[in-house]
Protein 1
Amino acid sequence: MATEEIQQEEQPATTTATGESSPQVYINQLSKHVGAEVTLRGWLYNLRSSGKLLFPQLRDGTGVVQCVVFKKAVAEEVWDALKNLGQESALSIRGTVRADERAPGGFEVDVVGAEVLHAVEGYPITPKEHGTEFLMDHRHLWLRSRRQHAILKVRHTVVRAVRDFLDNDNFTLADAPVLTPAACEGTTTLFEVDYFNDEKAYLTQSGQLYNEATAAAFGKVYCFGPTFRAERSKTRRHLTEFWMVEPEMAFAHLDDVMNLAERFVSSIASRVLEERQEELKVLERDTSKLELIVPPFPRLHYDDAVKMLHEGHERGELDARFEWGGDFGAPDETYISKQFEKPVMVHRYPAAIKAFYMARDPERPELALGVDVLASEGYGEVIGGGERATSLEFLEEQIKAHELPREAFEWYLDLRRYGSVPHAGFGMGIERCTAWMCGIEHVRETIPFPRMLYRIRP
RNA sequence: UGUGGCGUAGCCAAGCGGUAAGGCAUCGCACUGUUAAUGCGACCAUCGCAGGUUCGAUUCCUGCCGCCACAGCCA
């Protein structure tokens, strides 16, 4: 909150038509102006009336405040302009700030003057209930609603927490390209675009391989940007375009990644709790669940996770019996995470189901040194990562075994020819993390303009 | 892509073989403390599209389109 207050200093005073002036302020700054006359600029959120009284609620992006208009306190043309004003009309209001227990935000503004900048008729999103399709079609307007506003403010804090945590931990931002020449894991889940000279390029799925190059240059790095998956998945956890932050550390092992992941996730949760109490209240988030997100997180070996799933099946809490060797499905992940109050870190998955670049467990080569962080409350996988293989020969074999085009990986293999060291990292999806922090059902509300299987507009 | 569900006014929604409730929004009137204000009045519908069954279809059947949930895959 403190940094925001610095950014949102008063704007220069504006002069009204009658020559009077008062400082231009934002709604979240009203507490500093109690008793003073101020000018607010914003949009009409709602309007109630009672005889010679009007209660316009003004929204300016920083908050919503109820204003009070007494018919006798304003010029007749002001009263007439306000009394039938439509929702989302743009206006400037001049009035005196007053602390009032009856007001939701604690303050009210007694209006002495107002100027309608744009009168609106027929704003489609009313204060009543709407269906998903209607709201998604009006996403450009839906963003103005209190709940959406709260979610995106939490997202903003998640992003800041991510950057601050890594920057303060000596990570260097070294972004990976969005356009990439080849696929690391087949082309079926990649968006293809035309490059020059009949060449094909693909939108990145992950900055992973490039991170390994920058980690060898800077030691500890991260990339943070949009990633794209052309998966035909239609669930509450999937977007085709989402933002991912991927830290990578040279001279690091699986345990280092797990230590980093739990500190990282905990710092995000505590930052959200610290800065976004108002928003969490709007979202009716049970904040006691977020307060539990502190290190250490339970660490669960894949073998033990499988045992846990077998017990769940025997108790009839899971339909299918899980077979060792497979990847967890959504119901499996939910079951595992429900056994703990905190996020769980599941490590050492069968190598067969993990990416080609994963390092193997020296004691059990059939296992990969990978880790997934399963969020609490059934929010599923928010982090996936692990230790990378260091041996040139091993990677050459893996590329062959996965039937990947060797030429495309020559630059990557160079990283094993010139100063190859143990290194490890992970990726975290910003939208999944934000949905978890907010306690909301679907990731589509955690990004301003979601891109999904059947949704690319607006 | 598979399974299940749903498409009725600008929005939400009841009706499920006999000719379209109710609420919100909008418009008008009343009200000096409203909190999704309230009260009274007004306005708003080729019941997703195309066929079929029937004396008669929003209702039953078939196909198509759209949306939602779940699954696979993943962050």
Protein 2
Amino acid sequence: MKINSEVIARTALRLLDDVGLDGLTMRLIAQDLGVRAPTLYWHIKNKQELLDAMATLVYVEAAERLEPPRDGSSWEDWLADWARHLRQAMLSHRDGARVLAGTYVNHETVHRAVELNLRTLRDAGFTLSEAARGFPAVLHYTIGHTIEEQAHTSAAYGDDNPYAPERLAAMIDAERFPLTAQASGDLLGMDGDVGFEYGLRLVVLGLRAAREERERG
Amino acid sequence: MKINSEVIARTALRLLDDVGLDGLTMRLIAQDLGVRAPTLYWHIKNKQELLDAMATLVYVEAAERLEPPRDGSSWEDWLADWARHLRQAMLSHRDGARVLAGTYVNHETVHRAVELNLRTLRDAGFTLSEAARGFPAVLHYTIGHTIEEQAHTSAAYGDDNPYAPERLAAMIDAERFPLTAQASGDLLGMDGDVGFEYGLRLVVLGLRAAREERERG
DNA sequence: GAATGCCCCTAACGGTGTTAGGGTGTCAAG
DNA sequence: CTTGACACCCTAACACCGTTAGGGGCATTC
């Protein structure tokens, strides 16, 4: 296959799943493409630019399946679905959240997604300003949650992951931290879909409450 | 000064502000301590463990100034203050959010903070389960927001930061993305305290709304 | 047929985290 | 007082990293 910057990024993204972010080297990517490392620099400026391109791909993966809300579907469901798509895109690649976090993606598909967010919220009765300040909160929550979740389940620690639930639960001193011990089930279950959905609901409820508060004056 | 793992972490955290996470090398830290790099390995297992220790210090920095809510202060204010403390701790070090993100900190001060969160929310009328699922959402939002903010203002790009607000605003096609263009001020102003406070308020409002929804049955 | 420019190569540079193995000083036990 | 153990630091070196310099083949264009 002909090599260009996008092919490199796609290859890197595929290799990422095998070796993780720390194991992703230029030499490895080049080898997979049947080429030597310096060749990559003909197509891309440096590794940071490659990481940006990878982040863009992940982001686009989430944004491109985004459609205007169908009739009858609420803005709450639509917004939550957008967050779920983004989360799924990150989860579908090892260290996906770390790759995405802190990369301001600039791509047409993403602009479209932003525009769609604004329009959907405004059509639902939000002011444009509320929409513009509100939906990034959903985004930031989603990124924050997923980066933590992916870190806890990371394979970086090998077999003896110090964040294994049973290990953490055993560490809590029930005398000094009774509520923590009592709620350890809920606390440790925060990773995964259930925990994500709970927080996501909170943010969406917050959006609705903020609008109602304004409407009441 | 006598060298031990905590002194190493403090030194590393101080150097971090000068050189950034990518510039933080074992040799540099050792030099600052008047010692050679391999010596560090007598005190710590590897660099990852050092980064964990640094993250713990930042986290503790935010948690140790945490006190039970004074009489007359609402749970909303208390919870928001806790988020602000955490954010300030991250912002007070270059790349602080990146260091903290994805490091499950295990330290007494943090356990105390968790317990205090649970107690405060429960005393305010939340069920323990609501508290245990709710406050991580605040935490995740805070981390997500701060990591993005710090990435955008990062010096990693040198003088030609592609995320400079005026550069981004100019990039938007007002014909195809009218709402985005119109709201660009609000969108780009999401970084900084104003944007953070807006989202933080949303999450807190969401918590309240979730409780009220339960109470109504 | 010459020249241009794309695309890949080899070689190498300066740096990284980390390990191996050896020294020196302190301090307790015999 | 001697001996040994142990804490703590060292030098040397390994394997690997991102990246640059410079050169060569090969197609397309004048």
